[in-house]
Design brief:
Blueprint lengths: L6 H7 L6 H33 L1 H20 L4 H13 L4 H11 L6 H26 L2 H4 L9 H4 L3 H21 L13 H13 L9 H24 L16 H5 L22 H4 L2 H13 L1
Helix pairs in contact: 1-2, 2-3, 2-4, 3-4, 3-9
Length: about 300
Amino acid sequence: MSIFPYVYYMVSSFEITSDDRQTAIYAGMVTSAFAFAEFSTGMLWGRLSDRVGRKPVLLSGLAGTSLSMIMFGFSPSLPMALVARALGGLLNGNIGVLQTTVAEMITEKEHQPKAYAVMPFVWCLGSILGPAMGGALADPCTSYPTMFPRGTVFDKFPYLLPNLVCAIILVFGVVVGLLFLEETHEQKKYNRDMGLETGRWIILKVSPSSLSLPSYSKIADANYNDTDAQLSDEDGLLSDEDPPGYRTTEGSPRNPSSRATSPVTENSPETHRPLPTKESNGMKGAFTRQVVLNIVGYGILA
């Protein structure tokens, strides 16, 4: 978003052509390279997050975008600008991963609408502040000659400053995510996270009165102990014997224990009951009719 105000002038500075229409076409290519690359790798990043977790994918997307913006700011030609934008899209196809993280983080359905409303709000806020900041910081040697004199790196690369500021913001986001973002993947969230433990240590040093949070091992042990205790209680309830006055050996519709102990012969239908088959959740299964309609709708709006 921040490149929209100056991308035309940046392409013009490459002196590829003197035709304004050709310059506009090249500027559109630079703008769309990010979106096309992001679209191409969105499904791959989603499948990778199922293997390694949500947090590594989100942080790598922020770091990759920061690297691509620095490359874009130092671009001396159109090919390098295209490569930098495409690299940013390839490393930042994690919008679906972000939505999955929110869904796994907010398990109460009555709170999910508020949580999902935050994402478009932040997107719109970035769409407002990003272009304004990009236009204000572009070519600082011309806009702010006293602060950025000629002959410096910002004179040689006049569009480096807005990309550098965006990269610093992204690096700050990576640090905050590394220290305070919790993993939400069902199988990965109990693994030890050194970054999260460091963030908790920093909070305790800054605010000693704050309550210390349990470690991952304690959380996992507590969950396993609770599960074992619950299963033990259920086993105890199922194994309770009937009072002596109510014991019977005859089958009764009101006595489930007697039915459970009834013998099962080889010709019984229960022995030939087919096992439930697991449905395939491959790439084709993800594109249902409703998903395709949503993609088409968003494409028309875009």
